[in-house]
Each structure stands twice: as C-alpha cells, then as structure tokens.
C-alpha cells in the first residue's frame, strides 16, 4: 500500500486522495454478534434506549435512577461498553450515567455514508441529541476522538459542568499528517485529501482543532489524562490541549497505553472524584 501511495503521489495525487479518503472515514469490519458481545464486559449494559439522530438509530444505555447526568463518549471504532467502568462509581456518588454508540459503532445504525463510515460531526450530533433527551450534562467523560466531538458540541452551545478527556486527540489536521506518513503519501495527496475531508464534513479542519476551541470559547473545568506509552494518539496531544485551555489540568500516566486507561482503577477513581467536585488523586 505504501508503495502504491508513493507512486500515486508522483503520478496521480487526486486518485491517491480519493483512496485515502475512503480509508480515513472507514471503520474496521465488525459483526453485530461481536459488537454485542463486547458491549458490557461487566455484565451490566444498563437500561437500553434508542433515539433517532440524522436518519439513523443511536443506541445507548443508562445507569442510575436519578441525579445529575454524566455522559460517556467513546472514541473512533469504539463502543459504549468501553467506558462502563466509570458507571458504578458515578452512580454511587448520586449521578445518573448515560452512554451511547455513535453512528456506525456498537449497536447503532449506519452513519450518513454507510455502515462502516462515521465522522466527528456525527459523533457530536449524536451527543447533543442524547443530551437533549436525557437532560443537562453535569459532566462528560470522553475518550480519544470522542473528546474532539465533545469539544465541538461544547463550542456549538452544549453546556456541561465538567469534562474529563481520556487520551484526547488534539487536531485531525495533525493526525492527517501522521496518517500520510503511515500510508506513505506526501504533500500533494495530503492537500487533496484535506479538501475532500472538509467537503464531506462541511467544515474546515481548523474547526476541529481542540486547543484552538479552548482558546476561543471558555470551557468548563477539564481533567485530561494521557499516557506516555500511547501509540494511537501521542501524549503531546493531551499536553497541547492542557496548555491551551485555561480551565484544564493534565495528568500523565505511564504504561497504560491508549485503552487501558479506561479500566485502570486509579484513573477511573480520579475521574469520578473530579466529576464529584473533589480533587482527583493520581500518582505520577
């Protein structure tokens, strides 16, 4: 693939950009059975709900019977069950917890461009719609690309008392450069890919720059947790957001990677404390 992209970079960058666009928006293949099996590793999937968002069914679960609501937002190619470890502690503190699968993820229906395609705006729209149904957001806990969606929703008017970002992506534009290095194409293909991505989502890439969003709009108190060993999204992304958002505090962990953060008891406990207005306790 790298050799093919290198050839297209020189001879036909427009063709390379079309191919790269398909890869950019395409989710890994999954089956309904495997998705369902992964949803609730603890055996408690919560009370299931379905709402209609942008022409598709968004499926989620709720925990707790009353109290202010904390929303859980998974990342790219994830599902709501990945964040369920946060639910028991939050419920014990008196919160109601709501999680959902973004379009083309988990149990939810296909996104606007098919069952294996989604986008940041679709994540953000789903979050806004779920909040509209289940009540104001006391807090949002978001992972990876879900953090970008949460920032976009907040920039567009969604209100939240507190936000926790776990291994957040700082900028799709910077990720696009990393994407180009992985696939082996250069600036000619990258420029065309950027235009194609912007055309599909209906906004320039800079609109999704999380550090810039925090400079432009006052954000709620935010806890950022990122691991030095994260191979999916480098810790420098979390650092960049923390440095740009006046309301953010950063904690860097070691040896947990990109997803183990979501089930590490110390991280889960710190996020629950933060949502409850207490000082998060995290070792270095």
Summarize this, please?
Helices cover 42% and strands 18% of the residues.
Fold and architecture overview:
This protein has 284 residues and is an alpha/beta fold. The protein folds into two domains: 1-30 and 172-208, no CATH class; 46-170 and 219-275, 3-Layer(aba) Sandwich (Rossmann fold). It has helices at 2-11, 13-25, 32-39, 86-92, 120-134, 145-155, 172-183, 187-201, 210-216, 235-244, 265-275, and strands at 47-53, 56-63, 69-73, 96-100, 137-143, 160-166, 222-227, 248-253. Strands 1-2-4-3-5-6-7-8 form an eight-stranded mixed beta sheet, with helices on both faces. Strand 7 (222-227), helix 10 (235-244) and strand 8 form a beta-alpha-beta unit. The protein starts with a helix and ends in a 9-residue tail after the last helix. The model has no long low-confidence stretch (mean pLDDT 92).
Features:
Rossmann fold, 2 domains, alpha/beta, 8-stranded mixed β-sheet, 284 residues
Distance between the termini: 40 Å
What is the radius of gyration computed over CA atoms, rounded to a whole number of angstroms? 18 Å
Overall SS class: alpha/beta
Count of all domains: 2
Shape: globular
In N-to-C order, the SSE pattern is HHHEEEHEHEHEHHHEHEH
CATH class of the largest domain: Alpha Beta
Beta percentage is 15-25%
- CATH homologous superfamily classification of the largest domain: Alpha/Beta hydrolase fold, catalytic domain
- In the CATH hierarchy, the architecture of the largest domain is 3-Layer(aba) Sandwich
Uncertain residue segments:
none
């Amino acid at each position: 693939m790298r050799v093919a992209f290198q050839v297209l970079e020189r001879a036909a960058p427009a063709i390379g950009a079309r191919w790269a666009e398909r890869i950019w928006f395409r989710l890994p293949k999954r089956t309904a059975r495997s998705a369902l099996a992964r949803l609730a590793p603890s055996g408690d999937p919560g009370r299931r709900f379905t709402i209609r968002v942008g022409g598709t069914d968004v499926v989620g679960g709720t925990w707790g019977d009353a109290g202010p609501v904390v929303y859980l937002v998974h990342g790219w190619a994830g599902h709501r069950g990945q964040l369920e470890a946060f639910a028991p502690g939050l419920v014990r503190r008196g919160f109601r917890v709501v999680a959902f699968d973004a379009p083309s993820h988990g149990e939810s229906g296909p996104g606007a461009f098919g069952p294996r395609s989604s986008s940041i705006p679709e994540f953000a729209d789903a979050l806004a719609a779920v909040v509209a149904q289940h009540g104001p957001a006391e807090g949002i806990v978001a992972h990876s690309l879900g953090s970008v969606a949460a920032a976009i929703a907040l920039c567009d008017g969604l209100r939240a008392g507190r936000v926790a970002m776990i291994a957040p992506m700082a900028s799709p534009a910077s990720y696009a450069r990393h994407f180009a290095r992985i696939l082996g194409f250069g600036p000619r293909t990258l420029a065309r890919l950027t235009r194609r991505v912007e055309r599909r989502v209906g906004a320039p890439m800079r609109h999704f720059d999380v550090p810039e969003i925090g400079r432009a709009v006052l954000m709620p108190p935010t806890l950022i947790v990122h691991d030095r060993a994260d191979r999916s999204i480098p810790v420098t992304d979390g650092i960049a957001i923390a440095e740009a958002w006046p309301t953010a505090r950063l904690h860097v962990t070691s040896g947990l990677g990109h997803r183990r953060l979501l089930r590490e008891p110390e991280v889960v406990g710190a996020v629950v404390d933060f949502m409850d207005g207490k000082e998060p306790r995290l070792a270095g």
